[in-house]
Amino acid sequence: MTIGVGGSTQEEALGRLGNMLDGVEPIGLAEYRARIEKAQRRMRQLGFEAIFLSAGPNLEYFTGVRWSPSERMVGAILPANGALEYLAPAFEEGTVRDFMVVDGLVNGWQEHENPYRLLFACLLRLGIEPNPRVRPRIGLCSSLPFFMFDGLRMLDPGYAFVDAGAVTAHCRQCKSTAEIALMQRAKDMTLAVHKATASILREGISTAEVVEFIHQAHRAVGASGSVFCIVLFGEASAFPHGVKYEQRLKPGDMVLIDTGCRVHSYLSDITRSYVFGEPNEHQRALWGFEKDAQLAAFAAARLGARCEQVDEAARSSLEACGLGPGYQLPGLPHRTGHGIGLEIHESPYLVHGDQTPIDVGMCFSNEPMICVPGEFGIRLEDHFYMTESGPRWFTEPSHSIDDPFALGR
User: Fold this and answer.
1) Sign of the CA dihedral 130, 133, 139, 143?
2) In angstroms, rounded to a whole number, what is the distance separating the alpha carbons of residues 227 and 267?
3) In this predicted model, what pLDDT tens digit does every residue of 261-319 receive, in sequence order?
4) For residues 364 and 191, what is the distance between their CA atoms, to the nearest angstrom?
5) CB contact at 8 A, 323 and 332
6) Domain 174-393, CATH
7) pLDDT category, 1, cuts 50, 70, 90?
8) How far is CA 261 from CA 83, 240, 270, 320, in A?
9) CATH for 47-172, among 3.40.350.10, 3.40.50.2300, 3.40.50.12780, 3.40.50.300?
10) pTM listed for this prediction
């Protein structure tokens, strides 16, 4: 029997977990101000007059305002020079002020009014005058809903609307010490949840029951619950993001569990794959190929290397074992990894075509999954961050197929 898999009741497993949030501090005002200053320097370099930070991760990253996007326009106007201001429905002003870490004027619009006209009025008041011949560049978040972009464009006030990603992604992709610390705690919490979850597996348990336990376990370690949760058994584990039907665990099944939580909005995302019972030789071989590919990707993550080179390293490792080539199955059907921070998937990406140079502070998933249709899939997903001396794991990779959590080491 795989070490650490089975043997505990849910009550026993939950009883061994405790709140892990002691000493955790959210991002402070000084860091938000530094982020804004960095963005404004970048805007001046690129010729942006202002950017509109729409509701979602960009708004939260620069202001601390955590706001879910909706049909109502909410965001912040960040000029290349001067103070940041907010734009929101007038009845939401109190809530916006409650969330904001960076103070600023709140420009409110009533429900019958046009928020796009208010945005243009704010730009004009900030000294950013429209010019139909030489249109001032106004950056918009790539996540801004199309109907909002279309509403701005249809008024045609004499501004050039461009993707703000050259500013926002540039600022967000290299994490600070404080950001890395928050992600480290989130990943420590999720790894503890993984260990607890493995211990409660038994023959006949359903994937739905395991998902519910993972939600409870994340709450037990101090999170509000799981941000996402994928639990797959047997043949279903060959589908990277799951199937619509429930499964029940059988001896010899490959188990794939992918889950994460938030700590002050920063995310964890860890996958473990192991066998319920005794692994067969085919499972052992492919599990070893998976771990070798993960380690090859880690070794290729060098400062100054292109992100795509990490993907190439993992894929070459798998191809040397007779898998693939490319995205062909059995093999690796998706990219090797993604950036992570306030979003589960954010730039840059470890994938062919992403030529972003790897830099200090970048954080990546490392998950070169092996899919064998009709049999099983194996994904070992850990994250690493870049230091001056190279990559460093947030969580140590799975130890072995017989002892995935190194409990018997």
Assistant:
1) positive
2) 8
3) 999 999 999 999 999 999 999 999 999 999 999 999 999 999 999 999 999 999 999 99
4) 17
5) yes
6) 3.90.230.10
7) confident
8) 34, 19, 10, 35
9) 3.40.350.10
10) 0.96
